[in-house]
Write a structure and sequence with these properties.
The chain is an alpha/beta fold. It contains 20 helices and 20 strands. The strands form five sheets. Strands 1, 2, 3, 4, 5, 9 and 10 form a seven-stranded antiparallel beta sheet that branches. Strands 15-14-13-16-17-18 form a six-stranded parallel beta sheet, with helices on one face. Helix 11 links the parallel strand 14 and strand 15. The longest helix has 17 residues. It comes from Castor canadensis.
Length: about 600
């Protein structure tokens, strides 16, 4: 049998087609055997469902790329380059009755009368992936036996149309890490990297074994059509058997790599190990976010923060936030321990700016602050809503700690690490615990008596799969800066004492921490305006969201908004971090000057056209 298959692969495309299409099926698994022809699968539905199914395919074009459909008044395979033969020459079918598969058929000859009132849809199969694998030098890795490669039902719902409501089905190929980016460029944005763990139990076909250096990569599968047929519960329907295809004379589309532009060239970035998660974004978007990172890294206080910089921390933090559903933000560094309130004007504006943009993206946002500062932050949020900086209230929480279990109970529903309440924690100019257990301002003054142990939440998150964290700082004593503590101790004044010992997954370094919050909001705007990243977020299903339909631009930080925010802080007698004065100043620098220029630069980078 193996020798026969090898012989078929060497045959001319027309010869392959003649063996696949006769009434008696000689080949049951045509995966990877297209030989230049277009492989397609067939769905046959009652005429009454035809319009809805066509719309369903158009709304979910990733897994269901519709090539053609038959005329309404007679059933036959539609012309695709050259018309196939009559209805009796189709590949093997599954028969469905009221959403239940009731058997397999070699021919539909016995259903001639019913077929008169049915419509045939021909869907492009994703087996062109095999050609892409060949282009990047990867040989096809078959599962055991002659079964087709495994496919998996996900928890991702397709866009619903009328009776058609089903989950996305994906097919998996193990890809070596060093081939990921090139493969995505060849297949453009077909790939979906989901990090599914249960690879040994596919819903269709057999699993393909992953090697130690492989990444499981998932593509939308036309087997989603089987789930769609089940969901509509038609009295009678037919589909191709998984792994069996119609071969048409419609040529494979040309590899899109030759016409890629910076806006469409995909890049792959690793953002989480547990669970394994990569994200996809265009080269143009990456370039703009790197500009943001470089811009906020200026050091107006000459603190030596350039030594703390790690490339692409802003990019990875914003990518992780883009995938998040529920974000917990914290801020507050009580450097003015002899005043009430002891907070500074750096931190809250950046936290509010990020929260405002997360709200615009439809994410759940909460804040956690020190118990002694609860009233202050509640008033700040209320005032920013009144001033139009925030569109709605942000819940303000407190955490006073006690144990690891307390931190886990705060972060997870019923304390269950499998059900986290938040999937990303962000600290912006938040006091961070030093190695000796104390908290210090930049002058080595111990302010532990003013700080609640919110650090414990970041430590607990490190052991809870699915929660990532970001720390934003400008001096090394902020929560999350433990990731660069060696550089802090070496290059920052008093760093050997004040360096935060608690790490975040991503450490965003800025000349002023507020700038880091603004940059995160701007980076999220860039990502969600990126077609490549948007398709990835949608898992190639549902309609794309036009930028013009969003209020994202209005949600960006602006000079007017931040001036309002600073004015609110002044009303509550919050002081500048360096000078200690109550006024329109941040870190000892007047707002109208370096700060306004920075905000405008970030906006210009975010909204410029590449």
């Amino acid at each position: 049998m193996a020798a026969f298959i090898l012989h078929l692969k060497s045959c001319l495309p027309s010869a392959i087609r003649s063996l696949i299409l006769p009434k008696k099926a000689y080949i049951r698994n045509t995966s990877g055997m297209a030989g230049g022809l277009q492989p397609a699968s067939v769905v046959v539905l009652p005429r009454s469902l035809a319009l809805a199914f066509k719309s369903f395919c158009q709304a979910n074009s990733g897994p269901l790329p519709l090539l053609s459909q038959s005329e309404q008044d007679k059933w036959m395979l539609p012309a695709l380059g050259t018309a196939p033969e009559a209805r009796t020459v189709c590949p093997q079918f599954r028969k469905y009755e009221f959403g239940v598969c009731t058997g397999g058929l070699t021919s539909l000859e016995d259903y001639a009368e019913q077929l008169k009132d049915m419509v045939t849809f021909v869907l492009d199969c994703s087996f062109s992936l095999e050609r892409a694998l060949g282009i990047v030098g990867l040989s096809r890795r078959n599962p055991a036996g002659l079964s087709h490669a495994g496919a998996y039902k996900t928890t991702v719902p397709c866009a619903t149309v009328a009776e058609f409501c089903c989950p996305l089905v994906v097919t998996m190929r193990p890809i070596p890490k060093d081939k990921l980016e090139r493969l995505l460029q060849v297949t453009c944005s077909m790939a979906e990297l989901l990090g599914i763990k249960a690879l040994s139990k596919p819903d269709y076909g057999n699993c393909v074994e992953c090697q130690p250096e492989d990444v499981p990569v998932f593509w939308p599968s036309q087997l989603t059509s089987l789930e769609a047929v089940i969901s509509c519960k038609a009295a009678l329907a037919f589909t191709s058997m998984p792994g069996c295809t119609v071969m048409t004379h419609l040529k494979d589309s040309k590899t899109p790599a030759s016409c890629l532009t910076p806006k469409t060239v995909p890049e792959v970035h690793h953002i989480s190990q547990d669970p394994l998660h990569y994200s996809i974004v265009s080269a143009a978007a990456v370039q703009k976010i790197r500009k943001l990172e470089e811009t906020i890294a200026i050091d107006p206080g000459n603190r030596g923060i350039g030594h703390l910089l790690c490339k692409d921390e802003l990019l990875k933090a914003s990518l992780s936030l883009s995938h998040a559903h529920s974000v917990l933000v914290t801020t507050g560094l009580p450097t003015h321990f002899n005043h009430k309130p002891p907070e500074e004007t750096d931190g809250p504006p950046g936290a509010i700016a990020l929260g405002a943009f997360l709200q615009a993206l439809g994410k759940n946002v909460s804040m956690v602050v020190d118990q002694r500062a609860l009233s202050l932050h509640t008033k700040l949020v209320e005032d920013t809503v009144k001033q139009g900086v925030l569109k709605s209230q942000i819940p303000i929480l407190t955490y006073q700690g006690g144990s690891v279990k307390d931190a886990q109970a705060f972060l997870c529903k019923d304390g269950d690490p499998k059900s986290p309440r938040f999937d990303h924690l962000v600290a912006i100019e938040r006091a961070g615990r030093a190695a000796d257990g104390n908290y210090y301002n930049a002058r080595k003054v111990n302010i532990k008596h003013l700080v609640d142990p919110i650090d414990d939440l970041f430590l607990a998150a490190q052991k809870i799969p699915g929660i990532s964290s970001t720390g934003v700082g400008d001096g090394g004593n902020e929560l999350g800066m433990g990731k660069v503590k060696k550089a802090i101790k070496r290059h920052i004044r008093n760093g050997d004492v004040i360096a935060c010992d608690v790490e975040a997954d991503f450490a965003v370094i800025a000349g002023v921490s507020n700038w880091g919050g603004y940059a995160l909001a701007c980076a999220l705007y860039i990502l969600n305006s990126c077609e490549v990243h948007g398709r990835y977020l949608r898992k190639a299903i549902g309609p794309s969201r036009a930028l013009g339909e969003q209020n994202w631009t209005q949600a960006l930080p602006s000079i007017t908004k931040e001036e309002k925010m600073l004015g609110i802080l002044v009303q509550h007698k919050v002081r500048s971090g360096v000078s200690g004065i109550v006024g329109m100043e941040v870190d000892g620098m007047p707002f109208h000057g370096v700060h306004t220029k920075m905000i405008q630069k970030l906006l210009d980078i975010s909204t410029e056209h590449v």
